[in-house]
Amino acid sequence: MVRIKVCGITSEKDAVQIAQQTSIWALGFIFVEESLRFVNPDKARQIIRNLPASIAKVGVFRNHSLEEVQFIRSFCHLDLVQLHGSEPPQFCEKLGKGVIKAFGVDESFDPSQLDAYKEVVDFYLLDSTQNGKSGGLGIPFNWDKIRNIKTPIAKPLIVAGGLRKENIVACIRALQPFAVDLNSGVESAPGKKDIEKLREIIQILEREVKK
Ligand SMILES: O=C(O)c1ccccc1N[C@@H]1O[C@H](COP(=O)(O)O)[C@@H](O)[C@H]1O
């Protein structure tokens, strides 16, 4: 089954509940201060301390300095860093292993921009973008922009952007991603995860595998 990352964790209660009651791949912590899902590094470190090693802990950054990313990665014991801004390949390279590079997809998206990152990141993440903004928009991008690419994508693909129970099957059928990134689609309010919404998506995905 496709792997699941649940992003925007802000409370220990949500993190523990998801870790104990589901078999997700990764949990994400957003260190972007303007985000409604911002969590400070002290709180994230506290939450992460009580999570099993089997779940990947991902820190989400947007145009932070290299020093900030390195400090928070080490302080919070993150397994992966997700760069959700306009970080160039050289920036990713300096971070070494464990980098997810996010790219915003709109009608002008040019897939050849991924090439410059293929030696310096571990995963590509595709998210929607609108008016130069991306991250937590709650809207899917046009998957045909990716489905129609002729050459194979060089890195495992994580798909994000408004994924919820109504569109999750169509997304995985269209793109066959390595993982899906669930955020606003499994919330009762920004930063508050709704385990029932998550369970429902997991059941839908399990049914899809059996087909
Ligand atoms: O969710 C946010 O507030 C956020 C802010 C800044 C950068 C990234 C953010 N979240 C990431 O956005 C995508 C898609 O989220 P959604 O499903 O559209 O709500 C996901 O990768 C989150 O990690």
TrEMBL record:
The keyword DNA repair does not apply. Keywords: Amino-acid biosynthesis, Aromatic amino acid biosynthesis, Isomerase, Tryptophan biosynthesis. Gene3D superfamilies: Aldolase class I. CDD domains: PRAI (cd00405). Transmembrane segments: none annotated. Its EC number is 5.3.1.24. It catalyses: N-(5-phospho-beta-D-ribosyl)anthranilate = 1-(2-carboxyphenylamino)-1-deoxy-D-ribulose 5-phosphate. It comes from the Bacteria. Coiled coil: none annotated. Residues 5-203 form the N-(5'phosphoribosyl) anthranilate isomerase (PRAI) domain. It is an enzyme of class 5 (isomerase). GO terms for molecular function: phosphoribosylanthranilate isomerase activity. Pathway: Amino-acid biosynthesis; L-tryptophan biosynthesis; L-tryptophan from chorismate: step 3/5. The keyword Transport does not apply. It holds the Pfam family PRAI. Belongs to the TrpF family. This is N-(5'-phosphoribosyl)anthranilate isomerase. The lineage of its organism: Bacteria, Pseudomonadati, Atribacterota, Atribacteria, Atribacterales.
